[in-house]
Amino acid sequence: MSATASVVAAASTVTGNIGGLAYGLAAIGPGIGVGIIFGMGVQAIARQPEAEQTAFRYMLIGFALVEALALIGFVVPFVFKS
């Protein structure tokens, strides 16, 4: 059993509701992803200001995809709630 599964199993035995913990764990990845996307986007614009429009467009597309993962992580505990 992985460490994440162990934490979820322990939380479910203690609280009986793992929805909050599951969303907290699911929000870590998108949070890191958004930071990387915008950090690298700012660096790209600083290095090549003439490509600002293209870099900004790709930043927004990446942000939308990463935030979709966060929303999926929010919905999944409610779908599989027993």
Q: What report would you give on this structure?
A:
This protein has 82 residues and is mainly α. It is built from 3 helices and no strands. The protein has one domain (3-79): F1FO ATP Synthase, CATH 1.20.20. The two termini are 21 Å apart. The radius of gyration is 17 Å and the shape is elongated. The longest helix has 29 residues, at 19-47.
Structural class: mainly alpha
Count of separate structural domains: 1
Give the CATH H-level superfamily. Answer: F1F0 ATP synthase subunit C
Annotation field: number of helices:
3
How many E-type strands?
Answer: 0
Judging by the overall fold, what is the CATH architecture?
Answer: Up-down Bundle
Shape: elongated
Largest sheet: none
Main CATH class: Mainly Alpha
Helical content band: over 70%
Q: Proportion of β residues?
A: under 5%
What is the CA-CA span between the terminal residues? 21 Å
Radius of gyration: 17 Å
What value does the average pLDDT take? 80
> Any idea of the CATH topology?
F1FO ATP Synthase
Q: Features of this protein?
A:
82 residues; single chain; elongated; mainly alpha; F1FO ATP Synthase
In short:
The protein is an all-alpha fold. It contains 3 helices and no strands.
Helix and strand topology:
Elements lengths: L2 H13 L3 H29 L4 H28 L3
Helix pairs in contact: 2-3
